[in-house]
Amino acid sequence: MGALDEGRFNVELENGVKLGCVELGFEEEPETVAIKDAVKVLLQGLGEDINREGLRKTPLRVAKALREGTRGYKQKVKDIVQGALFPEAGLDNGIGHAGGAGGLVIVRDLDLFSYCESCLLPFQVKCHVGYVPSGQRVVGLSKLSRVADVFAKRLQDPWRLADEVCLALHHGIKPAGVAVILQCLHIDFPHLESVFLDSDHQGWVKLLVCSGSGVFENKKADIWGDFLSLLKFRGINVEKPHTGDSTDQCWCPSRSSSSAKISSNMGPAHPGMVTAVASILGSLGEDSSREELVGTPSRFVKWLMNFEKTDLEMKLNGFVCRRMDPLKLNGKASCNEEEIHSELNLSFWSQCEHHLLPFHGVVHIGYFSAKGVSPISKSLLQSIVHFHGFKLQVQERVTRQIAETVSSLLGGGVMVVVEANHTCMISRGIEKFGSSTATIAVLGQFSTDPAARAMFLQSIPNTTTFG
Fold it and tell me: What is the CATH number of domain 315-459?
């Protein structure tokens, strides 16, 4: 490990480090101020105290994330491609169906994210780009990724994103043809009303789209077979991508029939919050009156209201969560008279209070219970998880709250593990795709019994999937 410049390190701790598009004076820029003010309106509409510790900096954090995530509006493809073209042989006189010496070039597995223009939630993209060089022009391979990222960093839908990347590269490189394939994942975040009814709710909507120009315009051309074969060679199966536009497609969960039914039951969205979201769109450089965005503020607000702060008495599946009589559970019994029960892979959904972005995953619960006492039902434990999840949260807090609630039912030892994917980990400058976070809360006997902790942790399957 190299020597640490302690003086410089302390300065960075005190003043921060410049990241991404966040520049000096960023907080005072009119766009940032407008987004911060709008986020405060949204938080107040949820019944939150914007001055409480966890929320004081949320408006600024949201502004930074949104502006970083939509920086593509201020970038130009021409600036990226110019200076990155190199003189190599390409398709001049039809030598070889893929360009002869300057044949098909592809870049696979580019990780991108974009904000869905229908609901403002981020979606993930695995992008594959190919082109056939023409004349004496090949482009630096890193530029293919940068061009794709320019259009991803805008409010998008998959079809337009594929077309824009394809056309931009076609005009910038002037190749014989360009092909773009996108594997898209949109988080399908359930509404509070539906999640209690559907325990098997799937977390993602998947879509495969493609776009082609030049020699790739004909989807049945042999060159497509070469492109798809080179993808399949690395285990990427993209045999049936969707082509064309999205006029008859509905991939965003917020526009599905089931979502529309639930939204209608919730009544009209809060007008002040809708206006605030429209203000955010304008501050990002978008036109909120654009046809595709007309309903976006209302859809976002109705989704956000899932996390409204309420003072309702906690009732879970008809049970009032109060501490049960310790005598009934034989709370004074020794560990030898108790046994460990566990419930694994309970689905979990929540909303990060730092960035107003969703996170989701699974919860594993282990607990001591006196022999002869029936285990807590899975439905009750799932309800406890959902109750604490559907709030503005941080993962550490929700882990502790679940443990404390289960402990209040039993009066005994409880151990809770929460594993989650955070969309704020991909939709900000760090863009850590595939990362996950695990947190643990330990109460009672588990805190003093390492063997019991190890036994419970070993029972958690290593094939857990929640992304």
Answer: 3.30.1130.10
